[in-house]
Specification:
Helix content is about 25%, strand content about 30%. The chain is of the alpha+beta class and about 170 residues long. The protein folds into two domains: about 45 residues; about 110 residues, no CATH class. Strands 1, 2, 3, 4, 5, 6, 7, 8 and 9 form a nine-stranded antiparallel beta sheet that branches. A hairpin with a 2-residue loop joins strand 7 and strand 8. The protein binds zinc ion (2 copies). The site of one zinc ion has 7 residues, from loops.
Length: about 170
């Protein structure tokens, strides 16, 4: 080995060290960012307001809501925990509520209510597509992206100073 060859070899191994060092730094900073994210999400989860739970604070029977029949007819009437018959064809109508998805915007839905064991009224079922109903858990979620939906302001349960819990 000549002197030049040795020098080149040393430089190359030095370059490899630098690359390895940069890789490690990248891994460390990524891990740190991930850790920060986990902490932030954790804090948000612990401190999130309970207001978005699906339970309804005020009785739906005291509110004027929009009902929609499977034939598309809509009418205004007092809320009810059981469905209401459409005045036109006598078919079962359901309460129409518009929700907002952070990604997809307005999402029109039909909802059906039920009474929990503790007597509280809650949204029990939701339909985003004609004739397709699904049970609602703690939160209403967008059927396309799974994001939590919030009721649009027109929602009757959001009225009254915003202190009411909404479906
Ligand atoms: Zn009808
Ligand atoms: Zn969505």
């Amino acid at each position: 080995m000549t002197d030049t060859e040795i020098r080149v070899e040393t430089m190359e191994s030095h370059r490899v060290d630098v690359a390895e060092q940069q890789r490690k730094t990248t891994v460390y900073s990524f891990s740190a960012a991930a850790a920060v994210c986990i902490v932030v999400i954790g804090v948000w989860w612990m401190t999130r307001p309970a207001a978005s739970r699906v339970a309804v604070q005020r009785s739906i029977t005291s509110m004027q809501v929009t009902w929609q029949c499977p034939d598309g007819t809509t009418f205004e009437d007092r809320g009810s925990i059981i469905g209401k018959a459409c005045p036109h064809g006598n078919r079962r109508a359901d309460v129409r509520v518009t929700y907002v998805c952070p990604r997809h915007g307005d999402r029109a839905a039909l909802v059906r209510y039920a009474r929990s064991l503790n007597g509280q009224e809650r949204v029990a079922e939701v339909s985003f597509r004609h004739g397709v109903w699904r049970p609602v858990g703690q939160y209403l979620r967008c059927p396309d992206c799974g994001a939590r939906l919030i009721p649009k302001e027109a929602d009757p349960f959001a009225a009254g100073g915003g202190s009411l819990r909404s479906p």
